[in-house]
Amino acid sequence: MSASSIAEKGIQIVPTEETQGSLELNNVDYSLERKKSQRARYSFGIIFLVMNLVAWFFRDYGQRVIPQVQFIKSCGTGGDDCFHTMGVLRVSLGCFIFFSVMFLTTYKTKKLCEAGNTWHSGLWGLKSLLLIVSMALPFLLPSEIVQIYGEIARVGAGIFLLLQLVSVIQFIKWWGKCWTPDEERKQSCFLGLFMSTLFYMASLCGVVLMYKTYAPRLSCSLNIFFITWTAILLVVMMITSLHSKVNRGLLSSGIMASYIVFLCWCAIRSEPATVKCATEKQERGNRDWTTIIGFLIAIFAIVMATFSTGIDSKSFEFRKDKGEEEDDIPYKYGFFHMIFSLGAMYFAMLFISWNLNNSAKRWSIDVGWASMWVKILNEWFAATIYLWLLISPVVRQKRVLDHNEQVQQRTDIAIAA
Fold first, then answer.
1. Is 397 exposed, middle or buried (0-12, 13-18, 19+ CB in 10 A)?
2. How crowded is residue 240: how many other Cβ atoms within 10 Å of its Cβ?
3. Domain of life, per the record (predicted)?
4. Using CA atoms, how far apart are residues 183 and 102, in angstroms rounded to an integer?
5. Which residues contact 343 (CB under 8 A, 6 or more apart)?
6. Which of 82, 83, 288, 359 is the most exposed place for a label (fewest CB within 10 A)?
7. What is the DSSP-derived secondary structure letter of residue 288?
8. How far is CA 258 from the centre of its chain?
9. Residue 327 dihedral angles phi and psi, to the nearest 5°
């Protein structure tokens, strides 16, 4: 007897205790698998943090603490090809290999009941062995191959920065929507106005402080240009947001303005210490407590940026009409591991200041002219992407209206003929 005929005859199916127990067991299994998956991502984040610290160790102290590495043939005379810049690249390559293997073995996983979920969330003994092999392999490769990886890592780090920008901008849009005025909650209107004012005031204060700190003289023309252009971008974003055809308000643009100012500040801070256009350059050396704290904060920022982008696959989905089912994985494993593999390239570039030939100073990170220009371009890309997100609905609407008008004109001509 079919299910439809049973329904037509009004027969009620009462689930047995065995059926109810199996359903509850499935629900518990899905819940447990989901929790394992959520815990696994933090474990991968810790692994990534450890790899950052290992790369720093090989760059600054490896040659003095573990001189045994010099006996490895691929490390060259005195082991120089496994420390400093080359040491960072080898550790980064090992991290890249590990997360690339995880990407290739999990990118097709969609359900919690699949083998890919078990591999992603469990089997840590086997993954530990994979990690050890991945970290050891680069130290056996010739220096020429590691140099080639360094050139590729520049591109991969750039891709990572673009993906991170999209994720941050999507987060800013979501944040703005949370404080958007609502008819049912009148107090949110005041909150949105207050927060937008606060963010714009912070942005203005940031611009003034940058002028005072990093452009004290007219001879600091490059810094003056960067800061002035940042101020112009803030004004353009504000005017665009308030335009009658865009009408997005000031909240999200205020948050974005603060982010733009922060990127400009980071870029100027990356200028070499020999530049005389700053009033507070590090003249006391590069190992005081403020430098060490700043260095550690920068490492944790790298890990958090990689982690937050990795779990934000929804910002990169073109179609979001599909609803989530109970047995779906909580986040895209393949995308998660791909971001971490690109993040391995990114932290390598930060530790060597995007320069494959010169070794960075101890306790320094992302300092140099190359680093400065990367951050400035990152700022300009962020402003460009945000402005496009503001005006793109208007552009698409105009195209639709023009298309409809052309169709109407053709229809009128056909009727008249």
1. exposed
2. 17
3. Eukaryota
4. 47
5. 48, 160, 302, 305, 306, 309, 310
6. 288
7. S
8. 18
9. -95, 10
CB hemisphere CA count around 352 (13 angstroms): 30
**In terms of residues, how long is the chain?**
417
Closest CA to 88 of 376, 357, 304: 357
Closest among 146, 133, 139 to 82, alpha carbons compared: 139
| Partners of 273 in beta bridges | none
Separation of alpha carbons 375 and 269, rounded Å: 10
Distance (Å, whole) CA 7 – CA 15: 15
Please give the Cα distance from 355 to 370 (Å, whole number). Answer: 7
Taking the C-alpha atoms of residue 146 and residue 90, their distance in angstroms, rounded to an integer, is 7
**All structural domains of the chain with their residue ranges:** 28-315+328-411
Cβ within 8 Å of residue 389, ≥6 positions away: 169, 173
Distance, CA of 391 to CA of 244 (rounded, Å): 11
Task: Check if the beta carbon of residue 134 is closer than 8 Å to that of residue 54.
Answer: no
Q: Tokens for 181, please give them.
A: 């005025």
- Cβ atoms of 233 and 260 within 8 Å: the answer is yes
Cβ partners under 8 Å of residue 328, min gap 6: 110, 111, 112
Tens-digit pLDDT string for the chain (417 aa): 444 454 445 444 445 444 444 444 454 477 787 888 888 888 888 888 888 888 888 887 777 777 766 667 777 776 667 778 888 888 999 999 999 999 999 888 888 787 888 888 888 889 999 999 999 898 888 888 988 998 999 899 888 888 888 877 777 777 666 665 554 444 456 666 777 788 888 889 989 998 988 888 888 888 899 999 999 999 988 888 877 776 666 777 788 888 889 889 888 888 876 666 765 544 444 445 656 676 677 777 777 777 777 666 666 665 555 556 677 788 788 888 898 899 889 888 888 888 887 666 777 777 788 888 888 998 898 888 888 888 877 777 766 555 556 656 666 565 665
**107, burial (CB in 10 Å: exposed 0-12, middle 13-18, buried 19+):** middle
CA separation for the pair 339, 228 (Å, rounded):
33
